[in-house]
């Protein structure tokens, strides 16, 4: 009997490792062959990938917030998508108007203005996220695990309502400060435009800063310790409540940055944008292995690519179904997510 | 047995009974006498929690009371419409309670079963397949005279319910399959994904021609008629046949303005579901679910077959969603793809959590409170203050916020739910004693969170 169990285990490991890669490769390979036959090159697929990666960069920033919070208190923070939406609204509906950023602003002033609004959006979203934790989640520590899920949904309705009161019920156009469609480079037909540069140029430094902070700083170490075992962390003199607040702050900062990039990239804002984005970003976090920062970023990129390819080839109305179908397949082959380690939670 | 007369219980009775009477009369518009009787039932339950004879008496009287309800209220009045909705949603909440409350499998995609049930009604109770039957005359079975002359497929409500149960049970088990190896919130995300996928398929169903299906396409076209598609997409399928159950409503199909037969059918569904819920909870299977919820590893080592137990939980819960889906489709007379949103799953889940996970009475009250809030209070908030105070104030813009605010407040005030399940209540009290309260989300030895630069 032990031999049989061993073989089965090995088979499972193989399926876990290679089955997933096969699943992820389905779309690129099918459409790559299609492109090679039809056009004789891979330009179209390449363009799908570039657009997907820059879209995915926004999802990655939001997904970091989900993964941080889940890692430390095992809560799906349903209000996180709305924090991102508020970040968008603060930068686009309020800040740009206040300091007078328009399409005609000179380049230097524009860059400074956008950096300022990045800081404002991040701080506001971070503070909002901390406040949500104080009001809606902290009183429920030690309560049944699902109770905070409902307060999270409640907070998300409240924030959506704030969005409606602020800019109304329909999507609002915002000044096209950065022309996202303007081409920058052309590598063998694959075009990289300003929007791609904007999204990646914001996301990559922020992700690097965040991972460095969490892996190097004293507070980051406290966060990891709390995530591992809150009781032991408390015994070691870590202030668990402060650490949890810090986690929400970091998640909110990332969501605020995502909100600004989204407004610049899509040049429109909507009170409901956070809902769909939140769902997608949460999917990205799970896909990458929830609790794992690199996983969240990777998941964001993968979902962005799936979305773009599907929008472009199959039709936008099917995209959500395809993204979620991928998620189910990944869960089947690798329950712990792409980069997650096998834990008891997902063994 | 003597009643529980300690001061705490009396105090709770003193608070709970007036609240429920006020809620029923002032907010739901229930007849005052009936509301007081309801209050007495509650008081009896709280004062004699363990007395078997008292419990049986209360149950029998409560059923009689519920059957009498529609006859003391206006047949087309507000109480009847809200009451019917509450009952229909209670069926779904009780179904989800089996999955989430008993078996502890967090399901965020319950809307899938509502969608499948409603779509079954759309297929078999309307003129949607207008070319079905010989020469396009339609297929009819057990329907009223007027419906038997219509195009499309028209089956009797009960047959459609059976079909919906079969469809949803199979769908529930299929959705359950990929989650077998998963635990905790990973189950939540996979079920959420299936809910979204099924919602998407219904929305885009007008592109899915049965004739295009591989292998079986020709056969399907023969059954459902030429050019049949999966669903009508955003246009919606309407009208859906009204329920036709001969002795009720004088042998005619139900009318949308006379709600008494609707209420009685919904009540019958709730009673059946309640019976199944109570019996299942105390059965071998129900105890297996609860063991699974408490500790999967321990349950498995005690000989609980994990796969079968989990799949049965999904299947049973899903079937209830399907039953209620058929009823609601017929009641609202429309199957619209935009009904099948993620919000719906959350709405039903909120009923279960707010009422008290695993607690049947709690879930019933949770359904009552949330249906009231969603379908009466929020619309009223937009209308009433303007009538009362003659204010030119549009509160409709605030409705989502008020709803969210109420959810937060209710959960903060009673995190364990309105009526916690007894078993859970004991656990909660125990935890206070052992110093578990300071923990963050319960004990966890796992590294869920790592950062490697």
Structural category of chain A is mainly alpha
Shape of chain A: globular
Order of helices and strands of chain A: HHHHHEEEHHHHEHHH
**Based on DSSP secondary structure assignment, what is the total number of beta strands of chain A?**
4
Low-confidence regions of chain B: 431-453
Mean pLDDT of chain B: 84
The first-to-last residue Cα distance of chain B is 67 Å
The main pleated sheet of chain B reads as: 3 strands, mixed
Radius of gyration of chain B: 23 Å
Shape call of chain B? globular
Describe this structure in words.
The complex is a heterodimer of chains A (347) and B (453). With 347 residues, chain A is mostly helical. Chain A contains twelve helices and four strands; from the N terminus they run H-H-H-H-H-E-E-E-H-H-H-H-E-H-H-H. Chain A has a two-stranded antiparallel sheet. A two-stranded antiparallel ribbon of chain A has the order 2-3. Residues 343-347 of chain A have low confidence and may be disordered. Chain B is mainly α. Helix content of chain B is 62%, strand content 2%. Chain B is built from 16 helices and three strands. In chain B, helix 2 packs antiparallel against helix 3, helix 5 (111-124) packs parallel to helix 7 and helix 9 packs antiparallel against helix 12 (306-332). The N and C termini of chain B lie far apart (67 Å).
Give the arrangement of secondary structure elements.
The complex is a heterodimer of chains A (347) and B (453).
Chain A: H1 2-38, H2 43-73, H3 80-99, H4 107-137, H5 147-167, E1 172-173, E2 183-187, E3 190-193, H6 194-216, H7 218-228, H8 230-235, H9 240-266, E4 268-269, H10 273-288, H11 293-313, H12 319-333
Antiparallel strand pairs in A: 1-4, 2-3
Helix pairs in contact in A: 1-12, 2-6, 2-9, 2-10, 2-11, 3-4, 3-5, 3-9, 3-10, 4-9, 6-7, 6-9, 7-9, 10-11, 10-12, 11-12
Chain B: H1 7-27, H2 32-47, H3 52-72, H4 78-102, H5 111-124, E1 125-126, E2 139-141, E3 153-155, H6 157-176, H7 185-203, H8 217-224, H9 260-282, H10 284-294, H11 296-301, H12 306-332, H13 342-355, H14 360-389, H15 399-413, H16 422-433
Parallel strand pairs in B: 2-3
Antiparallel strand pairs in B: 1-3
């Amino acid at each position: 009997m032990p031999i049989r169990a061993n073989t089965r285990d090995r088979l499972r490991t193989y399926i876990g490792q290679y089955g997933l890669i096969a699943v992820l490769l389905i779309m690129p390979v099918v459409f790559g062959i299609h492109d090679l036959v039809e056009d004789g090159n891979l330009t179209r697929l390449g363009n799908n990938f570039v657009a997907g990666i820059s879209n995915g960069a926004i999802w990655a920033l939001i997904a970091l917030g989900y993964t941080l919070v889940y890692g430390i208190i095992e809560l799906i923070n349903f209000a996180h998508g709305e924090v991102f939406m508020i970040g968008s609204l603060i930068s686009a509906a309020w800040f740009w108007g206040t300091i007078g950023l328009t399409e005609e602003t000179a380049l230097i002033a524009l860059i400074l203005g956008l950096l300022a609004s990045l800081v404002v959006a991040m701080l506001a979203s971070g503070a909002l996220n901390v406040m949500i934790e104080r009001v809606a989640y902290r009183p429920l520590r030690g309560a049944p695990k699902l109770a905070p899920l409902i307060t999270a949904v409640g907070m998300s309705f409240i924030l959506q309502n704030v969005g409606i009161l602020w800019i109304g019920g329909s999507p609002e156009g915002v000044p096209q400060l950065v022309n996202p469609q303007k081409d920058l480079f052309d590598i063998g037909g694959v075009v990289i435009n300003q929007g791609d540069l904007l999204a990646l140029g914001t996301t990559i430094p922020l992700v690097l800063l965040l991972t460095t902070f969490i892996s190097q700083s004293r507070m980051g170490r406290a966060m990891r310790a709390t995530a591992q075992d809150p009781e032991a962390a408390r015994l070691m003199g870590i202030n668990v409540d402060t650490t949890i607040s810090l986690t929400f702050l970091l998640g909110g900062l990332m969501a605020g940055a995502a909100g600004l990039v989204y407004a610049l990239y899509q040049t429109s804002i909507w009170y409901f944008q956070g809902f769909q984005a939140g769902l997608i970003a949460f999917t990205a976090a799970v896909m990458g292995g929830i609790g794992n920062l690199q996983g969240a970023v990777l998941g964001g990129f993968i979902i962005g690519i799936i979305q773009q390819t599907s929008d472009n080839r199959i039709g936008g109305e099917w995209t959500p179904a395809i993204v979620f179908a991928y998620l189910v397949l990944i869960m089947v082959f690798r329950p712990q997510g792409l980069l997650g380690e096998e834990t008891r939670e997902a063994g | 047995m003597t009643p529980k007369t300690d001061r705490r219980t009396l105090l709770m009775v003193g608070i709970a009974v007036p609240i429920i009477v006020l809620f029923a009369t002032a907010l739901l518009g229930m007849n005052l006498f009936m509301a007081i009787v309801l209050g007495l039932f509650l008081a009896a339950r709280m004062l004699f929690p363990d007395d078997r004879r008292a419990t049986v008496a209360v149950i029998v009287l409560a059923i009689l009371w519920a059957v009498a309800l529609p006859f003391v209220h206006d047949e087309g009045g507000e109480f009847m419409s809200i009451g019917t909705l509450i009952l229909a949603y209670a069926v779904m909440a009780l179904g989800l309670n089996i999955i989430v409350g008993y078996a502890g499998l967090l399901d965020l995609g319950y809307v899938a079963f509502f969608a499948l049930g409603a779509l079954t009604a759309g297929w078999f109770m309307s003129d949607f397949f207008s070319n079905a039957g010989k020469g396009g005359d339609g297929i009819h079975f057990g329907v009223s005279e007027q419906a038997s002359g219509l195009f499309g497929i028209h089956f009797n409500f009960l047959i459609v319910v059976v079909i919906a149960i079969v469809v949803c049970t199979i769908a529930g088990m299929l959705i359950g399959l990929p989650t077998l190896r998963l635990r905790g919130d990973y189950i939540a995300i996979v079920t959420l994904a299936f809910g979204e996928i099924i919602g998407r398929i219904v929305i885009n169903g007008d592109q899915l021609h049965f004739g295009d299906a591989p292998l079986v396409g020709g056969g399907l076209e023969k059954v459902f008629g030429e050019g049949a598609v999966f669903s009508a997409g955003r246009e919606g399928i309407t009208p859906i046949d009204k329920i036709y159950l001969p002795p009720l409503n004088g042998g005619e199909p139900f009318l949308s303005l006379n709600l008494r037969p609707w209420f009685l059918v919904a009540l019958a569904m709730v009673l059946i579901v309640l019976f199944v819920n109570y019996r299942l909870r105390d059965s071998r299977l129900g105890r297996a679910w609860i063991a699974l919820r408490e500790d999967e590893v321990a349950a498995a080592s005690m000989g609980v077959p994990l796969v079968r137990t989990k799949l049965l939980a999904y299947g049973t819960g899903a079937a209830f969603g399907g039953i209620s889906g058929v009823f609601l489709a017929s009641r609202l007379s429309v199957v619209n793809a935009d009904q099948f949103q993620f919000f719906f799953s959350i709405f039903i889940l909120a009923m279960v959590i707010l009422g008290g996970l695993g607690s049947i009475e709690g879930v019933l009250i949770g359904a009552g409170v949330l249906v009231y809030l969603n379908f009466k209070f929020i619309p009223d908030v937009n209308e009433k203050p303007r009538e009362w105070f003659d204010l030119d104030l549009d509160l409709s813009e605030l409705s989502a916020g008020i709803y969210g605010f109420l959810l937060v407040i209710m959960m903060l005030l009673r995190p364990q739910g309105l009526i916690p399940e007894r078993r859970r209540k004991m656990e909660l009290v125990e935890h206070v004693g052992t110093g578990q309260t300071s923990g963050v989300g319960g004990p966890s030895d796992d590294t869920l969170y790592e950062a490697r630069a």
